């Protein structure tokens, strides 16, 4: 028993399909036999299979365009329902920056001092390196351990502002001016640089003592806690 077209499919009935096929076939035969329009008959013959398949499924193109459009939309909705639901990929949380802005500024100042091409004397470069040696581990601790807010601020300011400014303010000066020009106090810019670096180094040592003193205090608190919790009195023995 031949399959009946669905009511909502828009396809032609078997009778209408037979009539359309007969008309189409007669059309290309007539066009081909006239000689004048043979190329139209040839095109109709070549696309006959595709046209029949479309008309059988969709109906005549000029008939009820709105209904055909609605049927296409309905087919798209049915296909969408059959598709498996998209699996949402959970958002990957952004990892914290492993290096703080103060650490980057400190590293940049050290690089500029070491690559100044001899414009900064060896003693001053050594002082910059010593400041870096003291500050870098202290800044690393700030990322993993609690610190006094004022000490944290002083460490980040020294590394992120004071040392870079000291180095950069000196390096903008011409080399001969930095070593030969005398200020009203009788010092050269190179002398001023060394004095500033010594002051920064003293500040680093003070901050280091403050951080270590807090660590020692925390250790002592833990000792007192453990002693109170676990030491037995003579009566318990």
UniProtKB/TrEMBL annotation:
The keyword Transmembrane applies. Keywords: Membrane, Transmembrane, Transmembrane helix. The chain crosses the membrane at residues 12-31. This is 5-bromo-4-chloroindolyl phosphate hydrolysis protein. It comes from Kineococcus mangrovi.
């Amino acid at each position: 028993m031949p399959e009946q077209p669905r009511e909502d499919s828009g396809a032609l009935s078997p009778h209408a399909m037979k009539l359309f096929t007969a008309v189409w076939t007669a059309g290309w035969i007539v066009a081909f036999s006239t000689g004048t329009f043979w190329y139209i008959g040839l095109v109709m013959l070549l696309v006959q299979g595709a046209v029949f398949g479309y008309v059988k499924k969709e109906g005549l193109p000029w008939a009820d365009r709105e209904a055909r459009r609605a049927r296409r939309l309905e087919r798209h909705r049915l296909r969408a329902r059959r598709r498996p639901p998209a699996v949402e990929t959970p958002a990957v949380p952004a990892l914290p920056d492993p290096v703080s802005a103060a650490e980057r500024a400190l590293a940049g100042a050290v690089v500029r001092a070491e690559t100044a091409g001899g414009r900064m004397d060896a003693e001053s470069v050594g002082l910059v390196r010593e400041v870096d040696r003291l500050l870098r581990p202290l800044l690393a601790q700030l990322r993993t351990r609690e610190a006094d807010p004022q000490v944290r601020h002083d460490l980040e300011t020294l590394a992120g502002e004071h040392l870079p400014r000291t180095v950069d303010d000196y390096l903008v000066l011409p080399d001969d001016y930095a070593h030969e020009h005398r200020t009203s106090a009788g010092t050269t810019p190179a002398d001023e640089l060394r004095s500033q670096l010594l002051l920064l180094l003293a500040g680093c040592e003070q901050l280091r003592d403050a951080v270590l003193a807090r660590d020692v205090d925390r250790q002592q608190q833990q000792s007192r806690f453990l002693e109170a919790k676990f030491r037995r009195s003579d009566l318990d023995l």
